[in-house]
Amino acid sequence: MVSSVADLAAALIRLPSVNPPGGEQPVADHLAAHLGAHGLAVERVPVPGHGDALVAVLPGRGAAPARIFTGHLDVVGVSNAERARWAVDPFSGLIRDGRLVGRGAADMKGGVAAMVTAALDLHREGRTPPGDILLVLTTDEEDLMGGAKAVAGHPLLARDADVVVGEPTGLTLCTTGRGRTWATLTLRGATGHGSQASGRNPIQLAADLVAELDAEDFTATAAPDAPASFWRPLAIRAGVEPCVVPDTCTLTIDARLAPDHDPADVWVRLDAALGRLRAAHPALDVDVTVVDVREGWRTPAASGLVGEAKAALDAEGLDPTPGVFAGTTDGTVLRRASEGHGVRDVVICGPGALHAAHRENESVALTELDAAVRLYRRLMERR
Q1: Do 187 and 151 sit in the same domain of this protein?
Q2: pLDDT tens digits for the chain (383 residues)?
Q3: What is the radius of gyration, based on Cα positions, of the chain?
Q4: What does each C-alpha distance from 219 to 222, 229, 266 come to in angstroms?
Q5: Domain end: 279, 294, 309, which one?
Q6: By residue range, what is the domain housing residue 195?
């Protein structure tokens, strides 16, 4: 028999919510209806280009601060080449061999379904948690985190609260998060006939810049519990037609940061690299646009949230040893305080494996979804 959490997660997978460009609204509508039908009040928070983020509240007794449980509704796309490697339709939400298969099974419709199911189970059973439980279901996490940024200023979040993020960790506990920052760089040259060896080819300038980036030494940014920062190009766009030297080349430079590495240092290093490149190419013409900045973070071991999470994992027979989450999450945005409420403590713990996300045959074990529901119930009831 398939559990209710698996049924809900499968239903969410069958509603493709690929971002970019932003197809989250059907998932938001489904969850708003599901939560409302089971008695939870739901607030919709518009996110331009990405439908509605949702905030649902399970009222508590007022004996403890609120606790936010957050997950995102969007998924990355499936390229034609990747689709050919899938054993099933990536949006089928198929259950086979004890696993739910599909885009978003791990990242992170499984985690969303587990949080929602845990809250609704408590509500149905008439169990009132010590503090309000806020289900914060965001959009646009896979791009600019517009959903979390929109929700962060909502009046329902203007209170003391800590944050549980349901991103895939294999139900291990992460109390530290790496940072991320990225930028677009546009290098300019001049169009010319492809038969002429001279001229300013921005693609060649971009290649020289990438070589400079590869030579950068980030070793000193490493921490005892986390590897060093690194950066690399993740996109390049150029070209007019095969016989023409292009006049522009645009790179996306993505930096993944050790938890204690200041993101501003990345762009200081880039300025230095461009200075070295300009020494070899005095006419270098480049624009740099920093798209987003996400600082790394650490939740102290003495945090009450960390202690409760470790106790809940231990009670479920799971490893309570804290670790570092390799990616960035909406927790980075939500931990930033609303005025007067201090920096929020954050932990990340969810079903599925991060290494299985964003690739073919993404899946999550049904037993892990069920365990996530039990774990989240414990964290909601603080037991």
Answers
A1: no
A2: 457 999 999 999 999 999 999 999 999 999 999 999 999 999 999 999 999 999 999 999 999 999 999 999 999 999 999 999 999 999 999 999 999 999 999 999 999 999 999 999 999 999 999 999 999 999 999 999 999 999 998 999 999 999 999 999 999 999 999 999 999 999 998 888 888 877 788 999 999 999 999 999 999 999 999 999 999 999 999 987 888 889 999 999 999 999 999 999 999 999 999 999 999 999 899 999 999 999 999 999 999 999 999 999 999 999 999 999 999 999 999 998 766 777 899 999 999 999 999 999 999 999 999 999 999 999 999 98
A3: 23
A4: 6, 8, 13
A5: 294
A6: 179-294
> Whole-angstrom Cα distance, residue 80 to residue 373?
34
Name 72's bridge partners: 138
CATH number at residue 229: 3.30.70.360
Residue bearing tokens 């609204």: 25
31 and 167 belong to one structural domain: yes
Active site residues per annotation: 74, 141
Same-domain status, 127 and 197: no
Last residue of a domain, one of 274, 294, 314: 294
Query: DSSP secondary-structure letter at 103?
Result: T
Total count of domains within the chain:
2
